[in-house]
């Protein structure tokens, strides 16, 4: 029988299990194929003995409704930049891709399906160029991959953020407070922007549009003057003030400040420093945005991605990544898939519409 190896890499995301099940169910229709899963990305292949499990239509039954990934995942241990601890305790990164390909082939696999975000697909590309028959499946709650109009997990993250936002609105209103809610998204503001529109935020701060703190204070004061007395702000973890308007570490990607949910707290301080009189409270949603069951839309998208990925294996369409384009499930080359990111354009209709609704971006 022919064998396909499936793995999930990078951060987890609602819908991963639906992809895995989609692959296993579709493969059941092909009598000469078997599906296997490597535990914790490629670690399952590297480990001795290997940690590789058989995936069948029965063993994956019903998993599409569950969050996380039954195959586990990691955003460390890239085979191209594998961390090896030296005798003196320091870490050196080595390229183990040739060894990995050799091992996958010696284990008798005819194809690999790598489900993961930008980092994982860059790895897929390297492995494909070195001769491994790979298919990529895009995954990220951030929705920042340009080769696909949508990624599964994004709408679920927006739903979770919107539900939380709604809850913050009622308490903001009761206490006449300014509520700041920080959401994920890395360098892209998609989650924040969609949540701001879905929830009806007064202010939405995203990485793509640096903000002027004074404009936000003005917007807040306007609301309080009108006697409505509460404001709900959504801020993306990568949002930053306009250069020169503020001296703060907030928004500097990778800074410890940001990792700790710093932008919400930094913004709170900046508002006070800029003369905001209202009481402010901060909420950092964090990883709840990535947890739990995917909403129906993401289950469907992820399942279709799984089915398509296996069909690409059958067609020998290696070196490609599954994509959702113009309401259609299709595929693109891994080259195209990893070329650029998908950021919010300040000239997009989405931003214009939000502004038309009265949302301030602080620009
Ligand atoms: O890329 C997905 C994401 O959830 C980002 O939105 C966030 O910045 C990051 O991953 C968090 O990573 P980790 O799970 O390693 O803390």
From TrEMBL:
It is found in: Cytoplasm. It catalyses: beta-D-fructose 6-phosphate + ATP = beta-D-fructose 1,6-bisphosphate + ADP + H(+). The keyword Repeat does not apply. InterPro entries: ATP_PFK, ATP_PFK_prok-type, Phosphofructokinase_CS, Phosphofructokinase_dom, Phosphofructokinase_III, PKF_sf. Gene3D superfamilies: 3.40.50.450, Phosphofructokinase domain. Keywords: ATP-binding, Cytoplasm, Glycolysis, Kinase, Magnesium, Metal-binding, Nucleotide-binding, Transferase. Substrate binds at residues 140-142, 177, 184-186, 237, 281, 287-290. It is an enzyme of class 2 (transferase). Pathway: Carbohydrate degradation; glycolysis; D-glyceraldehyde 3-phosphate and glycerone phosphate from D-glucose: step 3/4. Pfam families: PFK. It comes from the Bacteria. Residues 3-313 form the Phosphofructokinase domain. Its cofactor is Mg(2+). GO terms for molecular function: 6-phosphofructokinase activity. The keyword Mitochondrion does not apply. Mg(2+) binds at residue 118. The active site is at residue 142. Its EC number is 2.7.1.11. ATP binds at residues 11, 76-77, 117-120. Belongs to the phosphofructokinase type A (PFKA) family. Mixed-substrate PFK group III subfamily. Homodimer or homotetramer. Catalyzes the phosphorylation of D-fructose 6-phosphate to fructose 1,6-bisphosphate by ATP, the first committing step of glycolysis. This is ATP-dependent 6-phosphofructokinase. It comes from Chryseosolibacter indicus.
């Amino acid at each position: 029988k022919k064998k396909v190896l499936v793995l999930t890499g990078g951060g987890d995301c609602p819908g991963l299990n639906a992809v895995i099940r989609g692959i296993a169910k579709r493969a059941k229709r092909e009598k000469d194929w078997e599906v296997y899963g490597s535990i914790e990305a490629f670690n399952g292949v590297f480990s001795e003995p290997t940690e590789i499990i058989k995936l069948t239509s029965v063993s994956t039954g019903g998993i599409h409704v569950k969050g996380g990934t039954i195959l586990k995942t990691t955003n460390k241990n890239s085979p191209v930049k594998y961390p090896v601890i030296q005798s003196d305790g320091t870490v050196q990164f080595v390229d183990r891709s040739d060894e990995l390909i050799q091992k996958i082939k010696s284990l008798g696999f005819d194809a690999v399906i790598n489900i993961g975000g930008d980092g994982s697909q860059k790895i897929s590309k390297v492995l494909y160029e070195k001769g491994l028959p790979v298919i990529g499946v895009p995954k990220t709650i951030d929705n920042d991959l340009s080769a696909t109009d949508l990624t599964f997990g994004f709408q679920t993250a927006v739903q979770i953020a919107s539900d939380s936002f709604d809850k913050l609105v009622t308490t903001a209103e009761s206490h006449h407070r300014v509520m700041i809610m920080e959401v994920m998204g890395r360098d892209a503001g998609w989650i924040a922007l969609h949540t701001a529109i879905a929830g009806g935020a007064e202010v939405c701060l995203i990485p793509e549009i640096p903000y002027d703190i004074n404009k936000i204070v003005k917007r807040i004061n306007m609301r309080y003057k009108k006697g409505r007395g509460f404001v709900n702000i959504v801020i993306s973890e990568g949002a930053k003030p306009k250069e020169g308007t503020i001296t703060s570490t907030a928004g500097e990607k990778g800074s410890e400040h940001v990792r700790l949910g710093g932008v919400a707290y930094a913004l709170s301080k900046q508002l006070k420093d800029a003369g905001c009189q209202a009481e402010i409270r901060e909420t950092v949603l964090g990883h709840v945005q990535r947890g739990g069951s995917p909403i129906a839309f993401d289950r469907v998208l992820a399942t279709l991605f799984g089915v398509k990925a296996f069909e690409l294996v059958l067609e020998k369409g290696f070196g490609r990544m599954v994509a959702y384009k113009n309401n259609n499930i299709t595929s693109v080359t891994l080259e195209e898939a990893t070329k650029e990111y998908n950021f919010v354009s300040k000239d997009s209709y989405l931003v214009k519409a939000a502004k038309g609704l009265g949302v301030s971006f602080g620009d």
